[in-house]
Design brief:
InterPro entries: AAA+_ATPase (IPR003593), Nuc-triphosphatase_THEP1 (IPR004948), P-loop_NTPase (IPR027417). By secondary structure, the chain is an alpha/beta fold. The protein has helices spanning 82-95, 152-167, 190-201, 220-227, 245-255; strands spanning 71-75, 100-110, 113-121, 126-132, 143-145, 148-150, 175-179, 205-211, 231-235. The longest helix is centred in the middle third of the chain and has 16 residues, at 152-167.
Length: 257
Amino acid sequence: MEGGDAGPRLTPPRPPAQPRAALPRGEQAAAGLGPGRSGAGAVQGGAPARWAAPCWGEGGARPAALAMAKHVFLTGPPGVGKTTLIQKVTQALKSSGIPIDGFYTEEVREGGRRTGFDVVTLSGKRGPLSRVSSDSSTSRREYRVGQYVVDLVSFEHLVLPVLRNVSHGSDAEKKICVIDEIGKMELFSQAFIQAVRQMLAGSGTMVLGTIPIPKGKPLDLVEEIRSRKDVSVFNVSKENRNSILQDILAAVESCRK
């Protein structure tokens, strides 16, 4: 801004500034965090790093209107700390008496080597999601992701009842369902896909979940979640994982209103 001069200017006055075009409905500017899975980046649009912007594929982000958000998802590279953050958020919500249920995935290690993943429900039930297979041959009924064979029966036995119970509970207070994660292994289950879609479309449950970064062939449900205008996605990185907890909790509280 220029400082004032003592006398009148001889140059003609500037034309009045034209108002900026309004953003489309549902895309009003919301501050975003830089990309997390591909490394920390500058804050988009120069806005304060408070709310994360939804991911729209690699290298791009499209801000969502926070007032429209109904669900919160975390994304980031493997091992960055998404599940740890989910567990911290869960503990904080439970201690506040907020109704919450769901599941998270946990590594299984033997002798310092990862041998698979377990599904752990918030009520404490545990079962195998996948295990390393020593047999390179693949049977017709096996579901594989890399070296891991997915135990679809175990996964559905543990997870589907939890999702049904959350969806069919009382509507007196909006419930929170933790889904960690919606990835390749979990998406072998068509019943799981259907349950998640119904939950996202409903009004009685807020989903707090995790999704993988885009890599290889797109996963249909994951891309649907990224593109939903009622989903707020936080990009978790090594740079922000220790400082983002309060922002996630604030987003969850906003979604429950």
